Automatic annotation (TrEMBL):
InterPro entries named in the record: AceGlu_kinase-like_sf (IPR036393), Asp/Glu/Uridylate_kinase (IPR001048), Asp_kinase (IPR001341), AsparK_Bifunc_asparK/hSer_DH (IPR042199)
Gene3D superfamilies in the cross-refs: Acetylglutamate kinase-like (3.40.1160.10), Aspartokinase, catalytic domain (1.20.120.1320)
Residues covered by the Aspartate/glutamate/uridylate kinase domain: 7-283
Family that this chain belongs to: Belongs to the aspartokinase family.
PANTHER family linked: ASPARTATE KINASE, ASPARTOKINASE
Keyword terms: Amino-acid biosynthesis, ATP-binding, Kinase, Nucleotide-binding, Transferase
Assigned EC number: 2.7.2.4
Top-rank taxon, per record: Bacteria
Name under which the protein is recorded: Aspartokinase
Catalysed transformations (reactions): L-aspartate + ATP = 4-phospho-L-aspartate + ADP
Molecular function terms from GO: aspartate kinase activity
Amino acid sequence: MTQAARCRVYKFGGASIRDADAIRRLGSLLAEKAPRPRAMVVSAMGKTTNALEALLRAAREQDEAGYRHRLTAICEDHLGVAEALFGPGSSVADALEQRLAELDTAHAAHREAPYPFHYDQTVGMGELLSTTLVAAWLNAVGVATRWCDARALIVTDEHHQAAEIDWATTRERIASLAAECDEVLLTQGFIGATARGVMTTLGREGSDFSAAILAEALGADELTIWKDVPGLFNADPRRFANARQILSLSYAEALEQTWHGATVIHPRTLAPLQRAGIPLTVRSFLDPEAPPSTIGPEAGEGDRQPAFMLRDDQVLLDIAPRDGGFLDEALVAEVLARLAEADLHANLLDIEALRLRLVVDHRPERLDPLGNTLAERFALTRHDGLVLLTVRHPDEALMAALDAHRSRLVIRCNATTAQRLYPAAECPATWRIPD
Ligand SMILES: Nc1ncnc2c1ncn2[C@@H]1O[C@H](COP(=O)(O)OP(=O)(O)O)[C@@H](O)[C@H]1O
Ligand SMILES: N[C@@H](CC(=O)OP(=O)(O)O)C(=O)O
């Protein structure tokens, strides 16, 4: 296959389109430096998703002044970028204003609706705004681009905030769109819609997953995720001063690392790529020539070397039968069923004869109801303010160096993975990987 015929899918996250300069840089990357993709997925600008979550909170709490203030800030951000790119009074600004008006109308309509549904109708709007800007800019710099509505492509169930994909219908819709159009297909990450057309979201940071869905449906030769780091590192370089890039690793290893908290790639991204044998490349939009990291079917250096994942703001739930008896299989199943109903993920699970310990993210809206339900049936103790460190391919000396001068509230270890739960007060803001 010639280079020109390769089918590439690209994903650009919020950092790569945070302002007008960043969108200009993206335009020149695609116009001059990187091979043209067949399709691309774009997230919301900068921290817009967080801003939309705050807007939603204000709306739910009937905080009218806070709501108006936040909506104005979101409008100003987007319209400011439109003006910087296209000048005053552009048709792009008109299109954005129309979407922002839709957002406001949706609030009036959904204020009393269930929270997850209301969340999706609000928070999913960030990607509709950003892609309107990016598609127009790419066309302006000569990259022929077709704006596509992900709500017409990615078909999901009705599980708001964590929707599951209807793969067969989604594949069919993406393939038929690709067959009728030669331009670069540009669509929104993070969102989809039910068969009835109601907007859903795929989970925070879900745009990587959207890109994988598109890559699989198009039978792509490769997926490239453009980040503000050159690739996947053996730890988050923002948290570990001496983190190093991993140039190659297998899907299986990347799945483990993302599952344990390597937030550079959304954990759901890898399964569709692995199924279809599509390699994933992680590259820097700040330094496109830098060697990337590649994730594929073969084991690479990352399958052997230690890697470090941190999760902050963790909560330990210590659960025991009220009668002091054994924690039999039925009781374990009951605890896990409650956890699944609360839509929480066990970042650590430790089962002993008389008690079970779970470590979960501190998400009060889910955790507090879970705590209440568990407390009805079990003796429950809760500890807040913890940090979970997971180390892949650890050795004893490494773990001893990490443990030095720290209390270990939970220790878990198997052949490939070690986990430690430390009090946050005993953990530094910036870590070092021991020599
Ligand atoms: N193992 C890791 N390797 C590289 N970056 C990591 C890793 N773990 C966490 N990160 C963080 O992921 C960030 C990039 O991901 P993210 O901010 O979600 O990008 P985007 O929003 O553009 O998709 C990096 O800036 C880095 O701090
Ligand atoms: N905008 C969504 C989806 C996403 O994946 O964003 P990013 O690619 O910037 O992480 C979020 O912030 O959750």
